[in-house]
Amino acid sequence: MTSLQDMIASGAKVVDVRTPEEFAFVGHPEMAWNIPLAFVTYQRKEGKMEYGSKMNLDFVAGVKKIAGPTDTLLLMCRSGGRSAMAVNQLAAAGFKNAYNITDGMEGDKVEDPESVFYGKRIKNGWKNSGLPWGYSIDPEKIMLSEGASKQTQ
To answer: Which residues are catalytically annotated?
Structure first.
């Protein structure tokens, strides 16, 4: 079995599909590209702030800018759900070697109600495995949404 580190050392690219906000403030693998599957939207309407999400219609095109259809891609999100959807999109677009990092960046929640860490994501995941991660951002490796925020009266 090949380890994640071996795959990366052999040229696999890590693609973090979380929002730019998650990528920046929660931390990310040091070598990761941030190509979000969806963006957070912010809209001020009648004095109230509304939040939502908007699918990134350029997700596959963004991946195609950094990788070809036979390149090995390791996709991740917070805990594995969005990255699984992203793998499916890439497979439909002809990518042959796109894999989901099942536990994502943060991993699983502690489910023991007696634990002081109950509900916290400190089991499994990139952050909890000893793999390299940080907060520094390479502007060349992050995709931002155009017009994700708008203000209406």
So the answer is: 77
